[in-house]
Amino acid sequence: MTDLLQKSWEYVIPLLKAGVILIRSVPKEVDVLTEELEKLRVLIRGAVDKVAAAEEGKTRELLKQKATQLRTIYFSIEDVIDEWNSCLQQEKYG
User: Fold this and answer.
1) What is the pLDDT of residues 38-70, one digit of tens each?
2) What residues have CB less than 8 Å from 47, skipping those under 6 apart?
3) Which among 30, 45, 43, 28 is positioned nearest to 77, based on CA atoms?
4) Does residue 53 contact residue 47 with C-beta atoms inside 8 Å?
5) CATH number for the 26-93 domain, one of 3.60.160, 1.20.140, 1.10.287, 2.40.128?
6) Among 36, 78, 86, 93, which is least packed by CB within 10 angstroms?
């Protein structure tokens, strides 16, 4: 039985170490996503400004479609980050 436990620990310990490394890297990944989200927000703002300045017609419609697509992507990313932060808070404060 002791031999079985020893072999189990030899298998489990590297998995636990790998899990800890992954968990430690998560805040860095969230920071990277947050930076990308900010860049996307600036891009969206630029697209919205271009739509406002564009002449009526096809150009305006195409720009509006792109701006709508960018907004959708932005809000999706923002939702993921918010959900992740909520999970972190629940784990932190129980």
Assistant:
1) 888 888 787 777 777 765 566 777 777 878 888
2) 63, 66, 67, 70
3) 30
4) no
5) 1.10.287
6) 93
